[in-house]
Amino acid sequence: MARDEKSDARPRILAVDDEPQANKLVARSLRALGHVETADSGDAAWKLAERSDFDLVISDQRMPGMSGVELLTRIARKNFETGRILITAYADIADTITAINEGRVHAYLGKPCDPEQLRATAESVLELVGRARRTPQTLLGVSGAMRDVMDRVRQVAPTRLPVLILGETGVGKELVARAVHDQSPRGGRPFVALNCGALPEALLESELFGFRKGAFTGADRDKQGLFEAADGGTLFLDEIGDMPRSLQVKLLRTLETQEVRPLGGNATKRVDVRLVSATHRDLESEVKEGDFREDLFYRINTMILQVVPLRARRVDIPILAQHFAEEFARGQRCSVTLRDDFLEALARLDFPGNVRELRNRVERAIAVAGMDGAVTAEHLDGATQRSYPRPEGGTLRALVDQVETQAIQEAMSRLGGNRTRVARELGLSRQGLRKKMVRLGLEDGPDR
Asked: Which residues pair with 108 in a beta bridge?
């Protein structure tokens, strides 16, 4: 249950220490900053935090029962927007640094604690979490990999340069693109997104560039293209590697001239659009194989952002799972609690579908547990526990081919051979699925 911000906007601060004098020191030092409550153990503090959210928790590290790091880790999982400060002796410094690096703790202070330093640190952390609440949350994660992405976003956002986002299907490339847009000077202007692999070539061209009445059968009115719709803002082209070569030529010309000509039109219109594109493909290999134009590749990859798969940043899994659970709970108007054993079980999985799969697994587990129930490891279904083959030896391409072959075969069997549905589930266009099946030896004839 969150606190009612309308009734009292002052921050709620929780001080946790098994020494009463230490709690009194924190309360005296910080009473000017907000309402200070105290707890004499980690377990007692957690009971308070389960019932209500705090803006800042300041905890001693060494206490009977639950340690300070354990407490702040639980609080971070429950509400990542809570400020977290650890007070620790020098002997605990290694554990503290690890906790900070993993994002479980915002700051730490040595014992004995100086009141002025405590107040300054508390003010700094409250400002940090307050700023985070005021900023639209698109990217979540505390791993080094996600911090690198966030830092890179801050670097590239102020520029006008094209950005290419690389990463596996489901890692959240569109969220990264939105973050680039939101943090740029164009943030208040349109953000227009299009999946290049989701449409056939003719429709893709008309969506991008628009058309004039009479341009083709059924064109009974003028239609604005997405380049014009994004004028002054950002155009995000997802899965740009799936774009047909014939359209790549027209896209390149539009990017170079910043002019767009609708289908069936004679006049061009100047547009001011920043392009952000994304793909799960290896575009350099696609260029070598002749499937992607080299000149367009060098036009769109001025700034590159690499988003690593979820299995390479497991520390983010509990935070993302909690976020998805909270979204689900708000939508269903229910209460959801993710138990530690559930989060630990999730963190051991590989998630070949990445963040998209994680969301699916969390929502399904909540449904299995029942509304307003506690979600435990027992609510993970059998499919979640499935292990993907990891054969030893061979090239990376051979290992990838084996995994892709199994994924396609399973999807084809489960969806009755419906290629449109299979392609959609695997994040491919129908044409892309066919090309992959031919390459993997799953098909040798024309598409049915």
From this structure: 86
